[in-house]
Amino acid sequence: MEGTQAYILAAKRMFWPIFSSTATTLAAFLPMLLWPGVAGKFMSFLPITVIVVLSASFITAMVFLPVLGNTLWRIVQFLSPAARRRKAGAHSQPGHRADQPPAPHVFEVRGFYGRLINMLIWHPLKVVLSIALLVTIIVQSFGVFGKGVEFIPAADFEQAVVFVRARGNLSALEKLDLTQQVEKIVLGVNGVRSAFTSAGVSGGLDFGPNTETDAPRDTIGRIYLEFRAAGSRPEGAEILKDIRRKTASLPGIYIDLQKKEEGPPTGKDIRLQIRSDDYARLKRAVAKVRQYFDTKAGDLRDIEDDRPLPGIEWELTVDREEAGRYGTDVASVGGVIQLVTNGILIGTYRPQNAEDEIDIRARFPKVERSLSQLDQLRIRTPKGLVPIRNLVKREAHQRVSTISRSDGLYSMYIKANVTEGVMPDAKVRQIENWLKAQSWPAGVTYKFRGADEEQKKSAAFLQKAMMGALFLMFIILLTQFNSFYQTFLTLMTVVLSVVGVLIGMMVMGQTFSVIMTGTGVVALAGIVVNNAIVLLDTYNRFHEEGMDRLEAIVMACAQRLRPVLLTTITTMIGLAPMMLGMNVNFLTRSIGFGGLTAGWWVPLATAIIFGLGFATVLTLILTPVMVAAPEVYRRKWRGFFDRRAARRKA
User: Fold this and answer.
1) pLDDT digit string (tens) for 529-585?
2) Residue 579: which of 564, 594, 596 has the closest Cα?
3) Which domains are seen in the chain, by residue range?
C-alpha cells in the first residue's frame, strides 16, 4: 500500500479508538477541577496540565503526525532509488489487503499469547474465579500488611520552627535568656544553616501571613530554622529528632518542633475540638481528655490544650455605697490603686525629631509596687484619710487571656503529635473509640479537625469524582461500542487497577495517601480503560468483516498485544524516576535520589505504575475471556442439546 494511503487509512481506522481513549482520560481528570478547599487549590494544577497536554497530543496524533509522516515518506521516496523500486514491486504483487488480518484462521495465529488465549477462552468460569480469588487475597493482604492511611505523604523539608515553651511571670529579658539557651544548642546541630530568633512573643496571637498553625499558648520564644541544601545534610525529620534529644535536659523549658508545611496546612497530627454552651463544663471535659492524652493514649508528644494558663488575676471591687459615705467615687479609688500598678498618667512628652509621644506616669518605686502595698494605701476624702481596704474588696481568680467561641459555643482545642512510626489515622481512631466509650455532660460535643478533617473531605470528594468520572466514561464507551456488555468489561479494568495500587503500596512499603494516592487512583480510571478499548475495537472490526467471534477475539489479542504492551511499558518507564524519587540535574550532569518535593509524587507514581501494570496483565487475559464467554457458553449449550438429541435418536 502506498504511504499516503497507509497514513490516511491508519488515521481513519484509529480515530475513534484514540478519541475514546483520550476522552475517557479527560473524563477522569475533569471532575478534579471541582475539588474544593485548600487541597483543591493545591492539586488544581495537575488536572489542568493533563487536560491541556492531552488535548494537544490528540490533535497532534490525528492531524500533524499523518501529515508530517506522509511528507517525510514522500521525501524518502524521492531521494531513495531503492525505495522507488520497492514501491514499484509492491504495486506489482497481488495479495491480501493490508487492512485485513494476515491469517484468516484462528489456529494460524502464532505466538504464546495467542495460544494461551485460545486455550483460556474455553474456561471462562475458571478464569473469572481464579482472578476473583487473586483479588480477594490481595485486598485481605493489604488489610494485614498495609501501613495504613495518611492525608499528605511525608516529604523532606528545609525549614522548621522551634517553639520555646515555659511558664511563669517572666520578663522579656528572662524570656530572651531562655530562648538563647535553646538557640545555642540548635545552631550546633548538624544540618542547621541559619536561625532567626524572636523572644517574648505570646503564642497563638500572631495572625500575620507567616502564622504557624499550632503555636502553643505558653510560647516565650520562636526560633525559625533553615537547613542546608538537600544532599549535604540529614533529612529534616532526623534534624528535628536531634534537636529534641539535645534540648530534652534543659530545666524549666519544653521544646515544641514544627516543620514548615509545604502543602495544605493541617497543623499537628491530632487536633481535637471540644465545644460546649457552658464554659465550666467545657474546661472539665478538656481536662479529662488531656489526662487521657498524658497518661493512657500513648505514642503522643507535644501535647497542649487551650485552657487558660496557670496564673492569678486579682479582681478589685469598689463598694460604691461605702465610698459615697466618705464622699469619694470609683475614679478616685482607681487613681490611687494605679500608684502600685501602671501609674497615673499626668502628661505626655514628645522628644525632638520624634513623631510619637511618651506618656509621663507617676507611681511608687519598684520595691513598693507589691500586692501588700494595697493594704497600706489611703485615699484622701472630705472626712480625712481612709484606708483603701475599707472601700475595696479583693478576690483572686484564674487568669483568662482569651475565650474562643465557634458557632455560638465555647470552644477549646487539644493538640498533639504522634511519635515516629505511628500513623496519625490509627491514633485518631483509637482516641475516637475512647471518646465514644465515655459519658459526657449535656451540651458537650467533639470533632477532629486538621489533617483528619481534611482527609475525610478529600476522600469524600475523590469518591464523588470517581463516580462522576465513571459515569462520563460510561457514556463515552457506550457511544463507542453501542454495547452495555462491552462497556461493563471496559470499566471493570478500573477495579483491577485499584487492586494493583494496593500491591504497589505493599511492595514499596508506602502508606495510602488520600490526596496523592487517591489522585493516582482517579487518574488510573481514565488510563487503564485504553487497553480494553483497543482490544474491543479491533475485535468488533474483525467480527464486522465476517470473522468468527472466537477467531476474532484471539486475532485481536494477537494483533494488539504489541501496542498495548508498548504503551503500558513506556508509561511505567516514564513514571519510574518519579516513583524512585530520582532527580536529574542537566547542568551538573548528575543523578540523585530524594529531594524536597520528590516525596510528594512518589505515591502518585507508584499508584499509576502498579495499577496500570496489574490491570494490563489481567486485562489481556480477562477481557478476551469475558468477550468470548457468551459465544463459548452458547456453543456448549447447543452441543449439550445436540448430544441429547443424538442419544434420543439412538
Assistant:
1) 888 888 888 888 888 888 888 888 888 888 888 888 888 999 899 888 888 888 777
2) 594
3) 3-151+455-645 (1.20.1640.10), 156-261 (3.30.70.1430), 312-398 (3.30.2090.10)
